[in-house]
Amino acid sequence: MSVLVNKQSKIIVQGFTGGEGTFHATQMIEFGTQVVGGVTPGKGGTTHLDRPVFNTVREAVKATGANVSIVFVPPAFAADAIMEAADAGIALIVAITEGIPTRDMIQVKEYLKDKNCRLIGPNCPGVITAGECKVGIMPGFVFKQGRVGIVSKSGTLTYEAADQVAKAGLGVSTAIGIGGDPIIGTTTREAIELFMNDPDTDGIVMIGEIGGSLEAEAANWIKNNGNKKPVVGFIAGQTAPPGRRMGHAGAIIGGADDTAAAKMKIMRECGITVCDSPADIGITMAKILAK
Amino acid sequence: MSVLLNRNTGRNIIMYSTEGGMNIEDVAHNTPHLIFKEEVDPSVGLQSFQARNIAFNLGLSGNAFKEMVKFVVALYNCYVQTDSAMFEINPLFKTSDDKIIAVDAKVTLDDNGLFRHPSYEALRDKMEEDPTEVEASENELNYVKLDGNVGCMVNGAGLAMATMDIIKLAGGDPANFLDVGGTANAARVEKAFRIILKDPNVKAILVNIFGGIVRCDRVAQGIVDAYKNIGEIKVPIIIRLQGTNAEEAKKIIDESGLKVYSAIQLKEAADLVAKVLA
What we know:
The complex is a heterodimer.
Chain A: E1 11-14, H1 19-31, E2 35-39, E3 47-48, E4 51-54, H2 57-64, E5 68-71, H3 75-87, E6 92-95, H4 102-112, E7 118-120, E8 126-129, E9 133-136, E10 145-152, H5 155-167, E11 172-177, H6 188-196, E12 203-209, H7 214-224, E13 231-236, H8 260-269, E14 273-274, H9 281-290
Parallel strand pairs in A: 1-2, 1-5, 2-4, 5-6, 6-7, 10-11, 10-12, 12-13, 13-14
Antiparallel strand pairs in A: 3-4, 8-9, 8-11
Helix pairs in contact in A: 3-4, 5-9, 6-7, 7-8
Chain B: E1 2-6, E2 11-17, H1 24-30, E3 35-39, H2 48-57, H3 62-81, E4 84-89, E5 92-94, E6 100-102, E7 105-109, H4 131-138, E8 142-145, E9 150-154, H5 157-169, E10 176-179, H6 186-197, E11 204-211, H7 216-230, E12 237-243, H8 246-254, E13 260-263, H9 266-277
Parallel strand pairs in B: 9-11, 11-12, 12-13
Antiparallel strand pairs in B: 1-2, 1-4, 2-3, 4-7, 5-6, 8-10
Helix pairs in contact in B: 2-3, 6-7, 7-8
């Protein structure tokens, strides 16, 4: 059954008619995702990619019964788009947009606090349940069906991990790209918790990077909840210098706890099998699950 | 006194201590009771009582107290309105006539908020920045100069950091961080090569591209074209292309006649780095 999205998920695309929205919506439809329509304010009533376009998320939800939204809206308007989706009752909002100001995301986080919805991202590749449903920008073919869950702050490292898992003879249940910004909707710990409770996931790959304390929080949670499933971890940025932003807005070493070494240490102490090399993620998981 | 984002709560905090001028991490470790925090609720913003808390905790009274309350409110408003990522005021003085003065400050802006403040661009002094990093950013390449001996060119920030780690594990040291982004076409690849090669310490280059929606064979052709345009590249290059059409890509690289090493698995690429450095 996997987590977050499946064959039954009905997806609308915010920023549907723009370049990114059009390209990736096409890819999602080809993958087999149920894209039921899109939202572009001012273009309501038209059709795009053979699907209806709506002016507002509320109209889209009313007409299509959509329960998932993917956001390709440009950074200046993305926070507004996320809040609109939450207001319209969308249960899962996947924000792909990179470059949303932190000031806006502080407001979004506050706004979503008492709404009955989950935000993934922003600045993320999205969510994919192998063989069922892709709500994101990842190359779908890399994700072979299987029983390994992946949670990652990075896009291409997620594809790398999924590919290695497949090469090691395993496959992926669901992969969640949580995003590389300082404020994100779903944390590493929350994603891990979803996988721990998913009967179709046997092992979890957890990929983090320098900056923040999400990995430490997740590691402690895993330990305190009895290490029910094996977790293989990797932290990118072991060689990153302090004080420099490494691509992602959140990937910066501010204090001692932000370093890869500190995170790897606490993960190991909490019973996670941590790989020094990103080339070993797949084989490490295969060895553990073979036991 | 600092204003910054508490990433754990997703809220801004004002952090302050009477133990200024010292390494704040040492203060936090040795005397945590001397560091105070006020977290701002985003639904209502900074409240007066919080500004008063700060002034009281700093032991102020009378006019100095009033001035500090004003200072804190102005400081926080300025932080928010400028889309800043961090304010660090150190030292912060109370003068003998009870004025509060920020004597020195370090301000970090949120790059993602810059579009709201076009006037900031005029304040940028490129002379203060690494010229290669400036050139890279003008070409929309995300590049950070480091002091190692193996250059790298990668798509995606996470994989780029992971590639630096691979270089270290293979016995080298990364000479840079470089994310070429999603569209690794010939023009971008060429620019990236030229930027990496400006660094005389670079003894080898590792190209690591995970082709998703971008097809690897296209990227491979881009690399071959870029290589030929640049002319002779003297350092060994290891090219790892994985993902869509990876086999075709390897064939293009292998048959190009270029003096490069090609790999598909990340492990193979790591071994090749170790080999060329040996």
